[in-house]
Each structure stands twice: as structure tokens, then as C-alpha cells.
Write a structure and sequence with these properties.
mainly alpha; globular; 302 residues; 15 helices
């Protein structure tokens, strides 16, 4: 090998070593910066929740002390039992869970069936119909409030759970169009050859849906369940419109009533708010892995 060729190879080795050293030295710095940014963002996001916990364990005098203090001294643990006994939160919780069961069940059933038709069945004009369906996302919810309320009033369904639960069985509650979109996008990631093999073995579309598609769609089902559960749990406008009897109040509506009745007792209000938020936080952490997986996989195919 000539001396010129050796020099060229040596220069190449040096450049590669230089780039490797730069990359090795840059990765820890980049990761450190990323961790710092994420830590700052996490602190900013968690600060209101920490303030809520702190206020729930304080008396009114401690909450409004100046300068403010982060740690209660002493801890006002009595705020939690006092808040639970001040309003019938057990009844509110039961009403909310009744609505949750019906809405979550209806949403998963009808939205998955509709998405299966758009993603796995072959019929003329399905893409056009799906495009028209997506335009429903652009329709503001407030536009339909008055005609919907008038319709339920004409049916005599006011002060019942029917207006809050029945639309879910027609893909009309809890963001029905968006949930159909999530299901469809996930169904498109499942190989269609599995459907064809089942059809060759004599299966019908119902069997393909129940035995092949749905068992493989647990991540997106969890995502839709979480979205729907949180939507119903935090829904204030719906119960406010259709429920008038305090025996039918949900947690969101009962908390608002609690706030108006106990405006001066901020410690009790913070304790009640914390107890209402806590189930949602626990639900998210328990199903976090499925939630991230479902959101990621729904965008693989268009």
C-alpha cells in the first residue's frame, strides 16, 4: 500500500474518532438538558396539584396566611370527614358510577362497531361517509344544546339519567366521532390477512369482530375507556341541564353545589376537590402503559 493511501486512511480514522468523541461527549449533555427541561415542566404542572393537597390539609386561617406556607402546621385531617358528611357524596358517587357504566359500555360497543365497518368491511362510498362523519367534530357542542334539551323535554326524560346515557349507545356521547376515529386508525394496523383466513374458515363479520379484532385492540379500548371515563367524571354541563333533583346529582354537580353552599370554608372545599380528582389520577397511573401504547399505535396508518 502506498504512503499516500495510508495517509488518507489515517485521516479517515482520525475523523471518525473525532466524530465519535463528539457524539459521546454530546449525548450526556443533551440528556442532561432534556431531563432538566422535563423536570422543570413536571414541577410547573404539579405545582397546582401540590397546592391543592396543601390547602386540603389546612384550616382557612392557614390557607390565607401571608406570606403563604407550603406545609400545614398542624395538619387539618378533619377536613376530609367533614367534607364527606357536609354533602351526600356517597350518593353523588353512586350516581356518577351508574352513568359511567352505561356511557363507557355504550361508547366502546357502538364506536368499535362503526369503526370496524369503516376499517375492515368493503362497501361502496365508505371513505366518503367517513369524511362526512369527521365533519361532526367541527360542530360545536353548544350549537345542539337547545334543540337537544327541547327534544328530551318533549320525551319527558328530564331529571333522569336517560339524556346522559342513552346517546352513548348511538355513538353520540363522550366524543363519539373522535372515538370512532381512534378505533378505525387502530383497526387499520391489524393485518387484513387474519380476516381473510377467518372468512375462509367460515367465519362471519360478527365473529371476526368479536374473536379477532377486539381481542387484539386492548390498547385502543383502554384509551377510549380512559377518555370517556374522564369526560363523564368531569362533565358539569350535562348534569346541570338535565338533573334538577339533588338525589340525582353527580360528583361534578355536587361539588359545585358544595362550593356555593360552603364558599367560606375553603379547607373543606379543597378536601372535597382532592377526593373527586384522586380516582382519575389513580386510573391514569394504573392504565398509563396501555394509554401511551394505544395513542401511539392509532397514528400508524391513515
Amino acid at each position: 500500500m502506498s504512503s499516500s493511501m495510508q495517509s488518507v486512511l489515517e485521516v479517515g480514522r482520525r475523523r471518525r474518532r473525532g466524530r465519535g468523541a463528539q457524539q459521546t461527549g454530546g449525548k450526556p449533555v443533551t440528556r442532561a438538558m432534556m431531563f432538566v427541561i422535563l423536570a422543570v415542566g413536571a414541577i410547573v404542572m404539579l405545582a397546582p396539584f401540590a397546592w391543592l393537597i396543601r390547602s386540603a390539609l389546612m384550616t382557612d386561617a392557614q390557607i390565607f396566611i401571608n406570606p403563604p406556607q407550603w406545609f400545614p402546621n398542624p395538619f387539618a385531617w378533619e377536613n376530609f370527614p367533614d367534607a364527606l358528611t357536609a354533602q351526600p357524596f356517597a350518593r353523588y358517587f353512586l350516581n356518577t358510577m351508574i352513568i359511567e357504566v352505561f356511557v363507557v359500555t355504550g361508547t366502546v360497543l357502538t364506536c368499535s362497531l362503526t369503526a370496524f365497518s369503516f376499517a375492515r368491511l368493503r362497501w361502496r362510498g365508505r371513505n366518503v361517509v367517513f369524511g362526512i362523519l369527521l365533519t361532526g367534530v367541527m360542530l360545536p357542542y353548544a350549537v345542539t344544546l337547545i334543540p337537544t334539551f327541547v327534544g328530551w323535554a318533549a320525551l319527558g326524560a328530564l331529571d333522569t339519567f336517560i339524556p346522559l346515557t342513552l346517546p352513548a349507545f348511538f355513538a353520540g356521547a363522550g366524543g363519539g366521532v373522535f372515538n370512532i376515529f381512534l378505533f378505525r386508525q387502530f383497526f387499520l394496523t391489524i393485518p387484513y390477512e387474519m380476516d381473510e383466513a377467518a372468512y375462509i374458515d367460515g367465519a362471519n363479520p360478527w365473529q371476526v369482530f368479536l374473536r379477532i379484532v377486539m381481542p387484539l385492540s386492548k390498547p385502543v379500548i383502554v384509551v377510549v375507556v380512559i377518555f370517556t371515563f374522564i369526560g363523564v367524571w368531569n362533565d358539569f354541563l350535562g348534569p346541570l341541564l338535565y338533573l334538577t333533583s339533588s338525589d340525582n346529582f353527580t360528583l361534578a354537580l355536587g361539588l359545585a353545589t358544595f362550593q356555593s353552599a360552603y364558599t367560606a370554608q375553603w379547607g373543606l372545599l379543597m378536601a372535597a376537590s382532592l377526593m373527586v380528582i384522586l380516582p382519575i389520577v389513580v386510573l391514569f397511573f394504573v392504565l398509563q402503559r396501555y394509554f401511551v401504547e394505544g395513542v401511539t399505535l392509532t397514528g400508524i396508518k391513515g
